[in-house]
Specification:
Keywords: Signal
Number of strands: 5
CATH class of the largest domain: Alpha Beta
Structural class: mainly alpha
CATH topology of the largest domain: Collagenase (Catalytic Domain)
Oligomer: single chain
Strand order of the largest sheet: 1-3-2
GO molecular function, one term: metalloendopeptidase activity
Signal peptide: 1-17
Largest sheet: 3 strands, mixed
Shape: elongated
CATH architecture of the largest domain: 3-Layer(aba) Sandwich
Radius of gyration: 28 Å
Bound molecules: 2-acetamido-2-deoxy-beta-D-glucopyranose
Helix content: 55-70%
InterPro entries: MetalloPept_cat_dom_sf, Peptidase_M13, Peptidase_M13_C
Pfam families: Peptidase_M13
């Protein structure tokens, strides 16, 4: 019953711009003590859908998609042909192209130049090396003169070596979807005007970078290994990607270049269902600049592509609309902290950006996640190969967010409380709840072996690393959450490990 209520509230509030964190308090299970299992207290099993934020934003996402049904980039002829082709009924690509050429060759209405054009499309997409004139047997134009069409088609067939339709289909479903996902995302951001959200995140990231800079200057393992200045430099390169014009242009260029090639191929050859498939294959197999690798729309996404930090539409929307700073810092702030931290956290055995990273710190972080996993395993956790990136970024990200929260409120947590039916939530608690809410899943936590992140309930319950959690919920020493705490891992700062003097 409550779930239904929850969704109705959200639908209503979307119209006026809703604060998803406030709404999420509907989910809490008061029968689970926050000190026993904070995540399942905030995000009960089977109550919040697969992922609470996705369902909360579902209607908004549909309405954005609906807005762009008629957009040209969403109605590409090449994609229509791609979608309606019955691949299962076709032989291999090489065979298919040879057969189409055979029909064209035998068609008494087809002109010589149409046959030449057909062969040139194959030559340029498949046999050509970077626009240089063709050489030796890779020049296909003379084939158009062969009046023995079976021989010409067989000859052509032997020169090609296309991938299988299966591989082609998978690759291009993905490519079209990805480009359109980006276009939805950029357009959604531009339409909805979340500039306020962008500025809010950008300012926060600057605070994180300043904090990290201060901490690194005092970090014994960095100083002792003469790595501090280089780490400082790397951290100071970070910035929030907010030039949406560039993202828009790159993705539009990508899809429209393919579309133009498709239409040009059809003009050059002849209109028929088979030639449409042929031209779709040619247009897609051409040499294109990579589409921009961003993923703005996928409902809820942020990533570090050092030095750029990317935030998806939902996160920007949250940054725009969550009123309370404690709620903002616990949710979007935690995710932004995680992304910023990706620049700094490295596997000591496989350094990429940094000259040195503390192995002791790595052991401490992994130790905590192992301990949290031992206490809170639902289906599985800890299955991914021992690599540090995600666990460490969570831990440092949380600490950055909490540290900014602390600067801002400085112990005055009682103003602007949230009233629940039988208690009030103060701002310090609100911070922690917000972290759980951005990750609410009603399904049992399972380690996806392809995913390097720990499952969400582990990520959130590892918040015990913030010593103030215990204070916020007044957890006693015997509670599960306190018992799942290993030792405090100070990653950077004056209390971080020494690692040789
Ligand atoms: C066309 O060429 C094939 C060999 O590639 C040959 O078997 C066939 O007899 C030729 N047809 C004619 C009409 O010459
Ligand atoms: C880090 O610690 C692990 C485990 O103790 C060890 O196998 C590895 O060699 C260490 N790496 C470095 C760079 O010291
Ligand atoms: C996170 O911690 C768990 C538990 O120790 C570990 O098994 C897993 O490999 C770690 N994952 C990453 C990405 O570091």
């Amino acid at each position: 019953m409550k779930l239904v209520l929850f969704l109705i509230i959200i639908v209503v509030h979307q119209v006026i711009g809703f604060d998803v964190i406030r709404e999420a308090f509907e989910l809490i299970d008061e029968n689970v003590n926050p000190c026993d299992n904070f995540y399942r207290h905030a995000c009960p099993l089977y109550k919040s859908g697969i992922f609470m934020l996705n369902s909360a934003y579902e209607d908004l996402m549909y309405s954005i998609e609906a807005k762009f049904v008629d957009a040209e980039w969403n109605n590409l002829d090449v994609e229509k042909t791609f979608k309606r082709t019955l691949y299962k009924e076709l032989p291999s690509i090489d065979e298919f192209i040879a057969n189409v050429y055979l029909s064209l060759c035998q068609d008494i209405d087809a002109t010589h130049s149409q046959k030449e054009a057909f062969l040139l499309w194959v030559q340029n997409t498949k046999l050509d090396h970077g626009g240089e004139p063709c050489i030796f047997d890779k020049c296909l134009k003379p084939l158009a003169h062969d009046k023995n069409c079976t021989r010409a088609a067989a000859n052509l067939r032997n020169k090609m070596d296309f991938e299988t339709f299966d591989i082609f289909q998978k690759k291009w479903r993905n490519n079209f979807d990805y480009a359109k996902t980006n276009l939805y995302g950029v357009n959604a951001i531009l339409e909805a005007d979340v500039r306020g959200g962008i500025v809010r995140i950008r300012n926060l990231v600057q605070k994180y970078v300043d904090k990290l800079s201060d901490w690194i200057k005092e970090t014994p393992w960095a100083i002792n290994n003469k790595a501090d200045n280089m780490i400082l430099d790397v951290v100071n390169q970070l910035y929030v990607h907010d030039n949406l014009g560039i993202s828009l242009r790159k993705n539009l260029d990508y899809v429209f270049t393919i579309e133009q090639n498709y239409l040009k191929c059809l003009r050059d050859t002849k209109q028929s269902t088979e030639l449409e498939i042929f031209c779709m294959l040619m247009a897609c197999s051409g040499h294109y600049p990579e589409r921009e690798d961003i993923d703005f729309f996928n409902p809820f996404n942020a990533f570090n592509d050092h030095p750029h930090l990317h935030f998806s539409y939902i996160l920007l929307d949250m940054a725009e609309k969550i009123k309370n700073d404690a709620a903002f810092l616990g949710s979007v702030g935690y995710i932004a902290g995680h992304e910023v931290s990706h620049t700094l956290i490295e596997d000591a055995n496989n350094l990429q950006l940094l000259p040195y990273f503390s192995n002791e710190t790595v052991q401490c972080i992994q130790g905590q996640y192992q301990k949290t996993c031992d206490s809170y395993k639902e289906i599985s956790c800890g299955a991914v190969d021992n690599q540090i990136d995600e666990n460490g970024s969570d831990m440092l990200g949380m600490r950055l967010a909490y540290s900014v929260f602390n600067d801002e409120y400085d112990g005055s947590y009682e103003e602007d409380k949230i009233q629940l039916p039988d208690r009030t939530v103060n701002l310090q608690q609100l911070f922690f709840y917000s972290t759980a809410f951005v990750s609410c899943s009603g399904l049992k936590g399972n380690q996806d072996v392809r995913d390097t992140h720990s499952p969400w309930h582990i990520r959130v319950n590892a918040m015990m690393q913030i010593p103030e959690f215990r204070q916020a919920f007044q957890c006693d020493a015997e509670s599960e959450m306190v018992k799942s705490f290993g030792e405090e891992c100070v990653i950077v700062g004056k209390n971080a490990p020494q690692t040789r003097k």
